[in-house]
Amino acid sequence: MSTAARPTCSRACDPACDPACDPAVIRAAAALALLVLGALVGLAAVALHASWWGFVLAAVGSLAVLPALPPRWWTLPPYAVGWWVPLLVAWAGRREGDYALESSRYGYGLVVLAAVLVVAAAFLTALRAPRRQRYRKPGRAPGSARRGAR
Prior knowledge:
This protein is about 55% helix and about 0% strand. The chain is built from five helices and no strands. About 20% of the residues are buried.
């Protein structure tokens, strides 16, 4: 069989040879994993928020992820959205009329913590995300834009 019809793979992870090495696939898998991780951390926060040490643990554990992850659209926002899912399910209530969130300072604090987490994730992603460079025509200096004559 000839190798002329298919590309030869010289790198360990080449998207032309292995579709799983495509950066878009890797980003989507990371976003899905962080969504699940956020849901698990949010579930633990809802389960432990009734005591002071559980609330502190939920706050520290949830907010420590913000500086730990790189500020990309596929890291912080999926984590924050995943964190909200168990909170919204617990906030919706049950058929019996009771709620999984207490009407105490810890329950309200958990809602505020979730809001802070989402706003901080969106802000850090928008603030620290790398900007794309605008395309410049070759041969022109950045400050030598030609303006119309008066």
